[in-house]
Amino acid sequence: MHIGIMSGHFRRPSLGESLDAILGHGIRHLQFNLGSAHLDGPPGEQDESVFAGIRDEVDRRGMTIAALGGPVNMVHPDPVKRQEGIDRMETLIGICGPLGTSAIATCTGSRHPESMWRHHPDNVTEDTWQVLQGTLEHLLPIAESHGVALAFEPEVNNVCNNAKRSRQLIDEMASSALKVVMDASNLFGKGELPRMTEILDEAFELLGEHVSIAHAKDLDHDGDAGHLPAGAGKLDYERYVSLLCALPFEVSVILHGLGEDQVADSVAMLDRCAATVKARPAE
Q: Whole-model pTM above 0.90?
């Protein structure tokens, strides 16, 4: 397990200053937000050398871009806006190589017209499922050809609102380019917190082999929960970390939903949980 963070949490006048501030916390793994690079115009209008320059800044510090941030509403109810998102994702896929990453952290989206993170009753309809499949049928072959994984986040307000629907999507799309961002705090529908251990275990049983990266934040209630810093809420982090450490590959665990002054405490909490897991006798 490698502790990481979303680069956008450290806002500085230059990319180098942001990276140095992150490195000051001993963090070397990033979910990279293009806003951190202060690009002069849209990503699609940049020369490849711009992204190679970003990669050089990261590499020189011994850091890693575990994933490029690329939230897109794959089921936006407005076809024009949905196509804009698809076009943006195509651009992001194309710049992953120059950036030195092979994953984009995204989501399946919502039919809510104003926010991909808000619930809408149509999210669970068959029509919406077909729209999602249509979006992915277009994007996944492009991602495959670039060696890039589209890692979506199971999230209670999205079309893939739990582990079972997420696994269904993976099975039906049958693409090596479709992966998962595991965020335990987003898995609990209303009234489900008492089943925390069961839900966490099920999520890793169904999705563990498909995890690309993980997120680390916290929640104070189930359902449409607000974001808290990792370790400041109700999530059983010892269980979550034990499941991440049990995966047969190393995972970047990306902190978000916190302020700079809260990073040190969340890092220390993750380190403690990982140490506890490692100290347990082998079964």
A: yes
